[in-house]
Amino acid sequence: MSRNDHFSTVAATYAASRPDYPDALFDTLAGHVEATARVWEPGCGSGQATRGLASRFAHVHATDPSSRQLAQHWAASAPTPRVSLAVEPGERTGLANGSVRLVAVAQALHWFDLDAFFAECERVLVPGGVLAAWGYADFASPAGMETAVAAFRQDIDTDWPLGRSLVDGHYAAFRWPFEPLPAPTLWLEADWTLARLLGYLSSYSAVVRHRERTGNDAVAQHRASLTAAWGDPQGSRCLRWPLFLHLRRKA
After folding, report:
1. Is the pLDDT of residue 156 over 80?
2. Taking the CB of residue 107, how many other CB atoms lie within 10 A of it?
3. Which pLDDT does position 233 carry in this prediction?
4. Neighbours of 141 (CB within 10 A)
5. Measuring CA to CA, which residue among 174, 53, 20, 183 is closest to residue 112?
């Protein structure tokens, strides 16, 4: 594991509990890049974004530095000619020069060495190719859960790695290459059970680090209060995350 690998130890939980991205996101990308395009998706994790990319574009080369994450990728158990998987860091890929029309990074850019990654984008993108990077900050607490969620967040607040602050800032401080393209404001929404929410919280990098630092499972410690605030444990509730998107086109 690299110093930025916070998810290999929770790869199965990550794959089972992370939210899927809205169709509107991939429709936006398809509005800037033709359907015949080849895509590089670095930091693909277990493939939450790969499926949407593969449904819009001819081929997705999905890479991640964690072999454990890739083992959980849906294309590992259901191979398709539209997706290739490779254990590669975000800063380097085996793709040829000028071989892709879209580089798409979902909730992962804050873990990369940006200078090295942007140089690799310059290398692999064709002229006119697009770099797309997006992410989501913390979910909005459902009504009646504000106190319980705030107490959980307070416990793990000091355990977030540096990348978390970059997400909270919507990547606004990055020195981006290429010229910007207009990007819509989007929301990520999901109807989840309580079990799905608890699984999602368990996949937080801060929860992993908190357990390593203290020996305590923050989700288990707050399970009772979160459950009481949720209501019917068998019922579902709507979770919403603000989704930000950066689009840049190579000259």
Report:
1. yes
2. 21
3. 83
4. 16
5. 174
**171 touches 110 (CB < 8 A):** yes
Helix pair 218-230, 194-202: axis angle to 10 deg: 150
User: For residue 162, what are its two tokens?
Assistant: 């540096």
Question: If pLDDT is split at 50, 70 and 90, which confidence band does 12 have?
Answer: low
The amino acid that residue 35 corresponds to is A
Predicted confidence (pLDDT) at residue 131 exceeds the cutoff of 60: yes
Burial of 131 (0-12, 13-18, 19+ CB in 10 A): buried
The correct CATH number of 8-138+161-189+242-249 out of 3.40.50.150, 2.60.40.10, 3.10.20.30, 3.40.50.2000 is: 3.40.50.150
Inform me whether the pLDDT recorded for 78 exceeds 90.
yes
Burial (CB < 10 A; 0-12, 13-18, 19+), residue 35, is exposed
Domain boundaries, the chain: 8-138+161-189+242-249
Tell me, what's the pLDDT at 3?
Answer: 43
What is the structure's pLDDT at 2? 42
The 10s digit of each residue's pLDDT in 203-213 is 898 999 999 99
Q: What's the CA gap between 104 and 39, in Å, rounded? A: 7
pTM: 0.89
Return d(Cα 103, Cα 41) in angstroms, integer.
6
SS3 content of the chain, % helix, strand, coil (to 5): 40, 25, 35
